Amino acid sequence: MKQGTLRIKVSWLGILLLIGTIMIFDADIQKTMQDHRSTTTDELSKMVKPLGDGRIVVPVFIGVSIVGGVLQVPSLVNLGLTTLGALSLDGILTGTLQAALGRQRPYKGKGPTSYDPFSEGGSFPSGHTSVVFNVATILSSQYKSYGIIPVFSYSLAGLVGFSRINDNKHFASDVLAGALVGITTAQLALRIRKNIKQILSKIKAFYQAFSPE
Predict the structure, then answer these.
(1) What are phi and psi of 103, to 5 degrees?
(2) Domain count, the chain
């Protein structure tokens, strides 16, 4: 087994164990968060919540793609299309997990162990968190040479995750799982983009090699 593959498997195992551990304390974390909930935390949550709303984020990046095309800025087109692709993967995986598991949301008062597959549950994983971490990962990759952008992006993503627990819409493990889904689907989209670029580059080189002078 290659060392890189082993490292990935160990990392995944560690993350899954972490989520499982957090699940044990979901009820305690929820109670603590709600006991310390205040007007300040509610206002903060209200401010950052739209950053994880796909109904807002998707149109924004459609606009980025269009503006990039009109102004002939390839980097903007690349950013817009890559993010939209990543969000599509994220939406499919998040929606499937939410429907299949049907974990009940904390505000329903049924506790963190209440699951009703293919119901109106949809607590695990957190959709808002997965969306914002998905975008943060794409932005961090696209602008990694600007150190402030990855820090700022993931900081905002963390605040969105916090808001979902503060608003009693998700348990802590939902948020952690959402972050994992968002990061993973974004990395997958970036890998797909890289492979497509390599294929197109080879096709271009092939035609250039056989095209007349």
Answers:
(1) -65, 130
(2) 1
Q: Name the CA dihedral angle for 163, 180, 121, 45, rounded to a multiple of 10 degrees.
A: 10
CA 136/CA 81 separation, integer angstroms: 15
Each residue of 142-198: pLDDT tens digit?
998 888 999 999 999 999 999 999 999 999 999 999 999 999 999 999 999 888 877
Closest CA to 188 of 8, 6, 52, 3: 8
Boundaries of domain holding 194: 3-210
171-194 burial code (b ≥16 CB/10 A, e <16): bbbbbbbbbbbbbbbbbebbeebe
- In this prediction the pTM is 0.90
